[in-house]
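To: structure subgroup
Subject: Chain for Friday's discussion

All,

I'm putting the inputs and outputs inline so they're searchable in the archive.
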Amino acid sequence: MKRASTLIKSPLAWHTANVPAEHPVIPVVAERGGTQLKTPRGTVLVDTRERNPLDLSRFEGWFGKVERKALKLGDYSIAGLEEECVVERKDLSDLVHSLTIGRSVFVNRLKLMSGIRHRLLVITAPLTQVKAPYPQPGNPNRIFQSLIAVLAGIKVPFLCTDTHELGEEAVASYLYQVHLYHWLETHDHGRFLVDNDL
């Protein structure tokens, strides 16, 4: 008996070009009853001590503006939500340094972050590189297990991105959505984007 062909190929057979899709004009919109809500754009804050800041200028339609400001905690936040939202960003060499030589300072910062409602550690390197041998001193297994301990013990989620540019989009998307959910909640629209959805 001849087997019928499937309409959709198995995900194992999919070919990806490993090139990310272009970022959207707006990451998500909020709707009520099928009508898009007119929501304000927030102001992104970038800590003045961030040595190699992410370039968020290509997301100009997502935010009202991007400002440099000394933040008490983290590298990125949203104006007016500094006490509720903090993003810490590390590239691979900074992560290794922070979890070896600068460990006590970094762990203390992560513990402070754990008390913030919206917190995220973004690593602009793939997880495979975090787990691979480094040219600088540092044990990949210890670094990887430290990240898992940060997640399980301190409850600070982390996200690894394949490229610096994807890190920029991840941080921009996170800040955009934190601002949007906050606005929805404080204006009695509930904590969801679309009816019967997220």
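Points worth raising on Friday:
The longest strand covers residues 85-90.
The chain has a mean pLDDT of 91.

D.
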